[in-house]
Amino acid sequence: MRKLTAAWPVLAITVLALAGQTPAAQAAPEDIKEALGRVPGLTVVSENPAPTGYRFFKLTYTQPVDHRRPDGGTFQQRFTLLHKEFRSPTVVYTSGYNVSQSPNRSEPTQIVDGNQLSMEYRFFTPSRPEQPNWGKQLTIWQAAADQHRAVEAFKRLYPGKWLATGGSKGGMTATYFRRFFPDDVDATIPYVAPNDVINSHDRYNAFLANVGNDPACRSALKAIQRDVLTRRSEFAALAAADAAKNGYTFKTVGSADVSLEISVIDSYFAFWQYQRQSDCATIPKAGAPAAEVYAWFERVESLNTYSDQNLEVYVPYYFQAAYQLGAPESYEGYLRDLLRYPGSNVSRTFVPKSVDIPRFDHLAMPDIDFWVKSRGKRLMFVYGGNDPWGAEPFKLGFGTKDSYTYTVPGGNHGARISQLPPEQAAEATNTVRRWAGLPPVSPGVSTRSVPAGFPDFDADLTMLDRRRL
Questions:
Q1: How far apart are CA 95 and CA 317, in angstroms?
Q2: Quick one: which of 434, 417, 435 has its CA closest to 426?
Q3: What are phi and psi of 448, to 5 degrees?
């Protein structure tokens, strides 16, 4: 494989940039937009409004379709850049899905008060090759190589410390990037990232059977699921009306009835993924009016979740889950007497038949897991105590150095460092700052001031859908 382009020495760039300039010009800070224009393969699509003190750019970057054959074609990958200051720490972020088109800051970016380079995961449109070869081009290594080239390119502009982060599938992505290119960043902070080491040996169902500390809540969830499947025709009519209104079709999963059944199965997982145990009070009683129950499912797991239109954007994820990532087993045994399509709630069901899925790669996740335990360093994993995706977490091992795992008590898939008990939150915050080359802050001192104009980042940190990391 041809060696990927190395970063230019920052000192050399500075010397070249200053040569021939007047003292006044040399003293003036370089304009970030001009600097971006000199990065090979990078296109500034637009500069958009940003909060005071920041500049926000939408970008595209030319990437090889296949990093093992870099001369075999390219595609344009979408990025955004939130620029604060050239010398500040820089955080590279991905959700593992599409890139947000709004300026926002991940929690690590807030902690270090730095720049943020956000990137779209390959094959999520429009960052998809024109003639995609899914099996060869959509792998965890190819995506890691995308990040590698991008970080190498942007280090020409930002010579300070670099951190990688992401939530859920983005947290997995950040971990895989570090495994394949361990020296690209100084530290990695993955949030709520599952680690399905051996796909056939799952702990998800055992977790779901005992999640939380309120058996009555679990029973109420199971009761409303059974109620919907018992009164299937009532709810199918409501779902059909919604589908007609929104133009939904169901060719990928086979029928609207299959979508409804899988959505009902998934609602138990989805509740614990994004609700809190205190929300158990909102669960309708079995036998409640169908419209009331349907409205509750719309908040937790729509009965039309698996329409073609809702699935389309997530097909690359389901492909990866069926090929390399693995996925939770379906928690459906207690519903089996009411199911028409048992065993259908698997990743392959959600990938169009036109996309060929290779034989499952049983070595991909064990390789990542072994690297974390034997060679990982400066890693911080953050989980939610009630989040089903944390049933199989990354675990530190005999060779892991300067690394930590934190769990938010009762937390869900939106778990953050700031939600930890105060002592742990302060410890984790100062660890991130140490990795970024910054001094610690005193307990009780917040580093997360939110200037006017920043939206709530939580909605972009993770996806609000069950089975979608």
A1: 11
A2: 417
A3: -110, 40
Residue 81 buriedness (CB in 10 A; 0-12 / 13-18 / 19+): buried
pTM of the complete model: 0.90
Collapsing DSSP to helix, strand or coil, 59 comes out as strand
Residue 331 is given by DSSP the state: -
d(CA 274, CA 268): 11
Pick from 33, 393, 345: nearest CA to 191: 393
Peptide bond into 126 cis (omega under 30): yes
Q: What count of Cα atoms within 13 Å lies in the side-chain half-sphere of residue 400? A: 20
Cβ-proximal residues to 191 (8 Å cutoff; 6+ apart), any chain? 107, 165, 166, 167, 168, 170, 171, 382, 415, 416, 461, 462
Are 74 and 64 in contact, with CB atoms under 8 Å apart?
A: yes
Bridge partners (DSSP) of residue 405 are: 381
Produce one character per residue of 308-336: b if its CB has 16 or more CB atoms within 10 Å, e if not.
Answer: bebbeebbbbbbbbbbbbbbbbbbbeebe
Looking at residue 15, what DSSP letter applies? H
State the helix-helix crossing angle for 256-274 and 290-300, rounded to 10 degrees: 60
Query: Dihedrals φ, ψ of 412, to 5°?
Result: -115, -155
Nearest to 11 by CA among 148, 115, 156: 156
Q: How far is residue 381's CA from residue 203's CA, in Å, rounded to a whole number?
A: 19
The letter for the amino acid at 311 is L
Residue ranges of alpha helices (H) inside 28-119 are 32-36, 107-112
Long-range contacts of 57-64 (CB under 8 A, 24+ apart): 57/32, 57/33, 57/81, 57/83, 58/101, 61/149, 61/150, 61/153, 63/122, 63/146, 63/149, 64/145
In tens, the pLDDT along 47-101 reads 999 999 999 999 999 999 999 999 989 999 999 999 999 999 999 999 999 999 9
For residue range 240-259, list pLDDT tens digits in order. Answer: 999 999 999 999 999 999 99
Q: How far, CA to CA in Å, does 183 sit from each of 143, 152, 174, 376?
A: 16, 11, 13, 11
Distance between CA 155 and CA 160 in Å, rounded? 8
Q: Which of 18, 382, 400 is nearest to 193 (CA)?
A: 382
